[in-house]
């Protein structure tokens, strides 16, 4: 608390002495606060302040929690949902300024403190090298190995086929419904919802509609999109579950609408209780929590039911080959084709594409740095999409060649395991980069990190599953099966 006090006194003294005539922030129109004739050297402008925090704690407090540097009028402007969720309660503060700084230089003090863009380009080049490597491997499999397999399988007769080995031999089991198919369908529905939400949010931010100057706009956009995208979640979950032969459609819909959002909300509620006990300004008011619940149960859940209704109304997806009644025995597998080693290896390359960008994102969340390079972030998003797809397809092909047809869950977990590496990196970041002290701050850090990990797990797992789903359908639709 002493550190917060000293920081607030320093901030007030700097605000009273730095000669500026205004600020220009991307996404906001310039405003003139002084007379245009230039005769007035000093003028009073309105300063908005949000919170008081420290590098040793993740607990923010109101800017005027101490009895100094207060605005007598104490006017509070309107706040959006994102600002409330981030604990940035906006209030006014007195400010004295002069017009000694040029207009073009008014944001330099922020840009100077930001990481240089050369590191971002290094991150992009690193990710592109990984993508080119995976693309070359996939191209070799698709154009050479797989093409030869299909030609060989289509030329041999039935007796020779009995002596062959490879992915064709499991055609009667490759589309056999997996165990716990309802849970997989629920995860895929939520993952599709998160994927569409993330794509639209990053695309709008890349175009400049969600400027970092407009605080809370990014979070507000993400929450609103998630609420409105309940229909795709219900539709995808219902279609996948119906293809597994599931009949408990009510349970499927309820789990799709409540399971993963319920876990996130429970974690968020517990973190909010800690903030409330500590007296932090980041504690969400009870009315806002009720508003979030109203959005969830009043809009998202009904839209999920609507999507599930149309999903169950559609006919069952037809697979290119029939499923045998008796499951085929899986031969003895080598170490690298067993489930766990394949899943662990599958998440390494996707994580290698994002770990540099992840460093800047964690800095913006926990180290009080402004993140504004959304163009780089959107490009890394596309690279991650390609990498997860190609890595999962490669491992799926190797497992099918080893006559292991259990690809449903494995394709989801292979790319979804990237979230485990994200968790490991977050732990490393906590101990190596942060100076956080206190049990409450530590619990808050890992509590919010678990929410990020769960969302990223559903997001990457869904990408890998649908890439593998397309691949398996494609290869078995072009091979002759008697």
From TrEMBL:
It is found in: Membrane. The keyword Membrane applies. One of its GO terms (biological process) is protein localization to membrane. Residues 1-22 form the signal peptide. GO terms for cellular component: membrane. Its main location: membrane. The chain crosses the membrane at residues 121-143, 183-210, 216-241, 253-277, 289-312, 343-366, 372-400, 412-431, 443-472. It is a multi-pass membrane protein. Keywords: Membrane, Signal, Transmembrane, Transmembrane helix. It comes from the Eukaryota. SUPFAM superfamilies: MFS general substrate transporter. Belongs to the nonaspanin (TM9SF) (TC 9.A.2) family. This is Transmembrane 9 superfamily member. The gene is tm9sf5.
